[in-house]
Write a sequence for this structure.
């Protein structure tokens, strides 16, 4: 006779402390705690249910069983009483059980593992592979195990199969890819398995499932050796920043500014990245590439005004898998060159005591300074340098001096400048060797 049992979710708050026990099981049943939304108190997985008796610690308990339609269609099953325990003999099918004990009800799902026994035969790589996902072909049995909630909703009971293999992972501290073991937990396996593609040569090992593992009978199978074809990389750029107090700054640019802009480019790649290339162009779409550099690390000095786009790419040996890194924009601004006409060497340290030009994006520079008789006081070829007002280690007298400059800007502009330098105060050495000032 069938009984229509009202399913009250409020009863889930009345989970029994007493659990089911089993007689005649060859191995200890594996108990799985289900989610509260299932309405189940527990799930038991038995190696086999034939010849097994389930027991509940109450002589007055009434037993009902249900299938995939849920507890609303449960039917009462006869039970035996042994002292303070009621017992039911299990059948060969997976089945849900409802135990009515006075005013409380308890819900369980029992799995006959013999109906779902895992067995591994072969594990091979599929003929066709993607760059991001590795696909394996599995031969054997490890399919889905389904249990049903008290409302008849089918849910998967995870086998917790473990698929492990080696791959590479980028390490921020060493700025290199390092090997690590990857592990995927699979609820079940059909004929095909998809996982993130390995970045190094490896074998795939499938172990499981968790029920066989609990009973000391875990299955294991290994794939043939797999050659990595997927590629990955990291690329970065570092600008050599100059701290010249007389160089005009160009604000707002992540990389670039006043020429020459010196940048170091670096890349780290995975094992299969055989083809490696830095690409440099004035075309942001990279349809036309002006320069290519095959080394992973190189330095470059940008000396022409404008924006240059740089990116790193790599590919495997047959070009079937590629990686393109971020695009770096390197900006070089227009040139400027201004010359002061006065300074006061030696009068106040750090305050107008050196003659320097103010400049930006000057890529070629030569300056000569003379006294009124045409005698050269000093010369220099770096616009960041200057004149400290000394000649052969001694301060020169106050007066008028002359500069001649030839320079070229990153924008192609030629500078030919000449003018006066007024030394308004100078510290010289007297004939006695003591310092004296001349204005």
């Amino acid at each position: 006779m069938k009984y229509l049992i009202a399913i009250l979710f409020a009863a889930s708050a009345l989970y029994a402390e007493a659990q089911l026990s089993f007689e005649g099981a060859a191995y200890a049943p594996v108990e799985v705690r289900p989610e509260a939304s299932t309405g189940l108190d527990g799930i038991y997985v038995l190696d086999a249910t034939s010849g097994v008796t389930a027991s509940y610690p109450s002589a007055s308990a009434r037993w009902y069983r249900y299938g995939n339609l849920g507890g609303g269609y449960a039917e009462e099953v006869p039970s035996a009483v042994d002292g303070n325990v009621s017992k039911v003999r299990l059948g060969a099918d997976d089945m849900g059980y409802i135990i009515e004990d006075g005013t409380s009800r308890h819900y369980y799902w029992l799995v006959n593992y013999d109906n779902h026994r895992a067995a591994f035969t072969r594990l091979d790589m599929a003929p066709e592979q993607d760059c991001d996902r590795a696909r394996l072909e599995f031969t054997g049995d490890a399919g889905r195990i389904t249990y049903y909630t008290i409302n008849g909703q089918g849910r998967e009971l995870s086998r917790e199969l473990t698929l492990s293999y080696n791959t590479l992972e980028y390490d921020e501290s060493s700025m290199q890819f390092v090997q690590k073991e990857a592990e995927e937990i699979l609820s079940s396996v059909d004929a095909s398995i998809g996982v993130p593609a390995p970045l190094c040569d490896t074998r795939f090992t499938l172990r499981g499932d968790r029920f066989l593992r609990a009973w000391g009978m875990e299955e294991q199978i290994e794939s043939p050796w797999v050659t990595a074809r997927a590629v990955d990389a990291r690329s970065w750029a570092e600008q050599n920043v100059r701290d010249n107090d007389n160089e005009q700054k160009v604000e707002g640019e992540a990389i670039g500014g006043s020429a020459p802009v010196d940048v170091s480019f670096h890349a780290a790649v995975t094992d299969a990245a055989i083809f490696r290339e830095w690409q440099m162009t004035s075309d942001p779409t990279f349809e036309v590439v002006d320069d290519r550099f095959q080394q992973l690390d190189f330095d470059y000095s940008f000396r022409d005004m404008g924006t240059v786009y740089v990116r790193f790419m790599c590919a495997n040996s047959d070009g079937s898998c590629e990686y393109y890194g971020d695009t770096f924009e390197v900006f070089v601004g227009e040139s400027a060159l201004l010359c002061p006409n006065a300074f006061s060497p030696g009068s106040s340290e750090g305050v107008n005591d050196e003659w320097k030009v103010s400049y930006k994006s000057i890529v070629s520079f030569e300056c000569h300074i003379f006294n009124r008789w045409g005698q050269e006081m000093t010369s220099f070829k770096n616009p960041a340098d200057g004149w400290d007002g000394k000649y052969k280690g001694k301060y020169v007298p106050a007066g008028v001096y002359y500069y001649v400059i030839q320079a070229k800007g990153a924008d192609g502009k030629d500078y030919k400048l000449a003018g006066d330098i007024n030394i308004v105060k100078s510290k010289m050495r007297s004939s006695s060797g003591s310092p004296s000032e001349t204005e």
About this structure: The two ends are 123 Å apart (CA to CA). The CA atoms of residues 348 and 425 lie 10 Å apart.
